[in-house]
């Protein structure tokens, strides 16, 4: 059981750092894509986030429920 | 043998009133009435069988500790078999009972659509830009929490003490993929800035391992013994420890993995190796560590990270499935649950950001961290808390969760249909279809019965004590062949109960 488990699990972060350069290139591309995606998302947040965040957070008071 | 894991989710939503002078109770009522005004004949909820004070451990503390039943507030049943009502100054929607996790996710999404329509219709009724806004979260950041409860059909024959000790490790560690994420900490005695970000909305509010309370000193395992079905055969495990999820996959995992672990407990396939030493301490340790490296103490003296414990549960679940099959959760759903479970653990172990499209706490943390970095904000900056709250804003034009690329499981059109149509494989089919067809002759309804008034005294109560009867297969032809409620009552008197 324990043997099977070990095989199924992903490589540990330490093993990942020893990946070859051919694998590192797509990883960098992927990181760039994620960064661009996040930048777009943060632009949107700048647009839709409550304009007065302080008032919004302060006035968000709920009665306790179950 | 594990019994079918019929399940459902009840969600209390956060509520905010803008540009109108309404308190939370009135605003919640207005949402429901605005929704009903256009699509439903109002049928009252029947409180006949409500006993939230009954304790699964057999104690008699109920009168003092149980929540009051608020019979005076708006409370109704929908044609999809759901209950939509006001609870403790929150609008609450309980999905109908579902046979599969996939359906439970569908009806949870339908509940979101119901809230969205309620907001739109209330807005149309309010003057001067008045608006009622609903949030699918579990805390206001000021120490007040409201719940998202899962419910599971469980075999009464399972000793309750074993159920408690064996399900607790899952409740404590599943947060790694079910946590909805929270900026800050609300645990008693915490200091602002101590915990910048944590996995769970709810973990701060749990103070007991097991108990009857739901509003104070909340327990990890709730003992409310109110099965809403045959009490000699079944329990309804009322799970109060979970977060409300915006991610459909997170909801699928939350309900699906729990249904499997409960099935394993019913089959006595889960030993005591994973029983925790200090569950209340552990639930906060897990929630407070987004690095996922913290270890928690087991009763046998070992220590595991939450992820390691989840891997153990998954391994044992696979082994259980090989030996016992997946019928309790249905085979197709069961395979999907095991697959999603493995994928999310692999992703979390490798790099949590890789599951930002599945796990709410990761998706939210990515927004919070990115925003803080872009604007050079301190972890306690109020704008980060605003992101936390607005993540769960259910308005389409304001929701942050709907913008961050969460993978979906539910087709939008299917969710819209599920606003009105009940699931077909539980008694919710009979309840919902009766309401759609014969609402004028129904005085009240609840989970396990419908009360008809067909013009003859006395009123006729139709019991539905078996969650897996009243299905389309069993009652579809009967319902279709009856022109009115009187005919239905007449035919039911001739045959076995639904």
Task: Walk me through what this model shows.
The complex is a heterodimer of chains A (66) and B (498). Chain A is 70% helix and 0% strand. Chain A is elongated and about 50 Å long. Chain A has helices spanning 2-8, 13-16, 21-48, 53-59. By secondary structure, chain B is α+β, with helices and mostly antiparallel strands. Chain B folds into two domains: 7-409, Creatine Kinase, Chain A, domain 2, CATH 3.30.590; 417-494, no CATH class. Helix content of chain B is 39%, strand content 16%. In chain B, strand 14 (295-297) and strand 15 (303-305) form a beta hairpin. In chain B, helix 6 (248-266) packs across helix 9 and helix 8 (306-324) runs antiparallel to helix 9 (331-350). Chain B is globular, with a radius of gyration of 22 Å. Classes of the chains: A mainly alpha (66), B alpha+beta (498). Chain A binds chain B through residues 1, 4-5, 8-13, 16, 34, 37-38, 41-42, 44-45, 48-50, 53-54, 56-57, 59-66, and chain B through 12, 14-16, 24, 67, 87-90, 139-142, 144-147, 149, 214-215, 240, 311, 315, 319, 342, 346, 349-351, 353, 366-367, 370-371, 374, 382-383, 385-387, 389-390, 397-398, 400, 403-405.
Put simply, the count of helices of chain B is 15
Strand content of chain B: 15-25%
Terminus-to-terminus distance of chain B? 24 Å
Q: How many strands, what sense, and barrel or not for the largest sheet of chain A? A: none
Strand content of chain A: under 5%
Number of helices of chain A: 4
What is the total tally of β strands of chain B?
18
Report helical residue fraction of chain A.
55-70%
Largest sheet of chain B: 6 strands, antiparallel
Radius of gyration of chain A: 22 Å
Measured distance between first and last alpha carbons of chain A: 41 Å
Helical content of chain B (DSSP H or I, runs of 4+): 25-40%
- Count of distinct strands of chain A: 0
Q: What is the string of helix and strand elements of chain A?
A: HHHH
